Amino acid sequence: MSAIRDELARHIEQGVIPPFNYAYPSRSTYRPLNGTRNIRDIWAEDLQRHPVPELNLYLHVPFCRYKCGFCNLYTVISEDMDVYDAYMDALCTQIRDHTEIIQSRRLRTIYIGGGTPSLLNLRHFEQLFATLNEVYPNWRSTVEEVAIEATPDSIVKEPGTLEGLIALGLTRANIGIQSLVPSEIREAGRGQAGEDVIRRAIEITREKQLPNLSTDLIMGFAGQTPESWRHSVDELTALAPETISTYFLTVRPDAWFSKTGAYQYMMSPDLYERYDYANATFRAAGYIQESNVRYKKLGRGGYQQKVLTFHGVPLLGLGAGARSYTSSVDYMVGNVKPSLTEVADYITKARNHELTPLTGFVLNDEEIIRKRLVLDSFDLDLNELNRFGYQEMAHLFEPVLEAAEEVGLLRRLPTNRIQLTPAGFKYRDTLSWMLFSKNVIDLDRDYYADLHSKNKRARKHMGSEPIGISGLKTSRA
């Protein structure tokens, strides 16, 4: 255990910055399922594993006006309304095809992500919510959160769409800001969303009485200084959104920033000082910390779907590029590389009821336990994991938990509950990575090593090693 403790302490001292762990295993570990799994059986097995049948619903809209330099999400560039029409028809067909799965569970959250879903016309959302009414008539009685992703410029261009969504039941909008310094906004590849546009978008959400405005800032843009970071934090705090997230910029090889060679992985204890400043500023303004990246106004803000997914509530992902998270298989019905051709293929297959899991990761009991430890260590009752064999496999996990306790990242309560300390929140992703299985690490490294090689050939030079999702060069699992 001392070796694990020393390794964890060393990563903290070096300022290692792994990407934010919002899913385990990551998309990079998905491999072809070769027809070995079907959707009905996957969800039937999940239902057997969960004593309380609940569900998060994620609906993916992959369309954007432009591609941000740091983005590696499943997005395509299109403003073609005919494509939007066909896509919404396909998505609603896919929702109906999952009626039994949805109706067998208590629907807890609905999240419309992307992409930039706010590019769609209000009539598309009316069609979508009419389909939800058809499949799950009382969703407004059970759902705790209805959310959408949007860009500031899409809100400013079509404020009526936001107003209509609120009337349909929207409770939260995630508006990507990243910075309130004009040069940094341009650096992110978001020249269309200047500071004046951002401020106007926030004003519109207030005018329309949106219950929960969620915003974000990114630490680590090229040219960002401690002073410019403090400016963004102070300005956003003054604007007082209900929810604020702060992310370290971690550029994966499939993002444009990496392909250009302008950004490379770095270890920087200085960036953790920016975390400290934001943490202190938000807390002083009355925010509480919901996760290592997110702060909320008590009783008003937050990101309920993410919290519930971390707690083990399964997520049904529908739409091109969407991932589904269950206790048996995490899967996608398409490939991991987005393109308009693949979106067209999704539309055709949805219309013909031919969608089936193509890629994914099959979870055994050990990986289910690791998933909860990686994602949910903020506050986790280890007794919940006994039905998956935690006691029998404790030797795989306890050394890491004990090391985390020794270095002050974790505390244990007498009831066998673990909780992250304030330092544990700060270094949560470093701790989480140490709970990854060797299989997940190896699959991730293979995927990103291949992308690095392709980028290197394209640019004929590469200044960093393949680092995978963790950013850590150790081979320990």
From TrEMBL:
BP term (GO), one: porphyrin-containing compound biosynthetic process
PROSITE patterns noted in UniProt: RADICAL_SAM (PS51918)
Residue span, Radical SAM core domain: 49-291
Lineage top rank: taxon: Bacteria
Pfam families: Radical_SAM
Alphabetized GO MF terms: 4 iron, 4 sulfur cluster binding; catalytic activity
Gene3D superfamilies the record matches: tm_1862 like domain (3.80.30.20)
Gene Ontology cellular-component annotations: cytoplasm
SUPFAM superfamilies according to UniProt: Radical SAM enzymes
UniProt name for this protein: Heme chaperone HemW
Organism lineage string: Bacteria, Bacillati, Actinomycetota, Actinomycetes, Kitasatosporales
